[in-house]
Amino acid sequence: xxxxxxxxxxxVKPVTSIIGAEIxxxxxxxxxxxxxxxxxxxxxVHWKVLFFRDQRISYDQQIAFARNFGAVTPAxxxxxxxxxxxxxxxxxxxxEKALFGHGQVRPKFAPPRFTATGWHTDITFVAxxxxxxxxxxxxxxPYGGDTLWxxxxxxxxxxxxxxxxxxDHLQAVHQWHGxxxxxxxxxxxSQPPPAAVHxxxxxxxxxxxxxxxxxxGFTRYIVGLTDRENRRILDLLFDQIAxxxxxxxxxxxxxxxxxxxxxxxxxxxxxxxxxxxxDRRVERVTxxxxxxxxxxxxxxxxxxxxxxx
Length: 309
Known about the structure:
Elements: E1 11-14, E2 21-24, H1 34-47, E3 49-52, H2 59-67, E4 89-92, H3 93-100, E5 132-139, E6 147-151, H4 152-157, H5 161-167, E7 171-175, E8 195-199, E9 201-203, E10 210-212, E11 219-222, H6 227-241, E12 247-250, E13 257-261, E14 265-268, E15 281-287, E16 301-304
Parallel strand pairs: 2-3
Antiparallel strand pairs: 1-2, 3-13, 4-15, 5-13, 5-15, 6-12, 6-14, 7-8, 7-11, 8-16, 9-10
């Protein structure tokens, strides 16, 4: 399927046949008209993640762009945003080096190195995970620091019918992984981490497509299964979403933006920064989401914590 842009300014150029498209012909420093917003929204649900190049925008302009597609939330349910712009969530390698050190010698209080995949869908530990996120490359290394996205609809559709029939009726608990740094003002970190129950398969509210809705970052267990069954089934699904044929890789440039549909994708942040001396800083705005719904009508519920708005 090819999306034809009716507004001549908006050009949608697919990156792969499965996921990802570059958007050209728009200047995000300027307000978008309704036609352009509609075309970008259509491209988002079809291609799952959109890439914009050479967008030298301010924080206010990034936030204004996001508001075309829904309400903008605070930076993160738990972690702080920028003091001057609480909607902006920053990931800066320089801050991580200052906290945990850098190089071959591990500081005493550094968190353990990742031994599992870093694939995740944003903030699924709340009952209404983000609709989407818009991430800007502010400081980009000359090489390395790439991000990957995977198409969770394609991953689901590739499964055999008996497996799809099984997981269509399952729910899983998603939980925040714990406190490793600062929390936002007013957050009570003495309380247990937030958690929610989601369908293992989510029906996209716009397209009606079914997508896997588990991720190794936040999914802890499937409700009602034994530990042994959980390990086998979750390992199968985690391996499925990370298969390269469902993915696209984005090479960042300064002032590039990535805009992804959090309802149908998972993503993997850079895996090579620990071995790099380069700095990297990216800045994210998040669009509020709704409650996921499964094929059997199950609607996500919070176990701990509130809806994120």
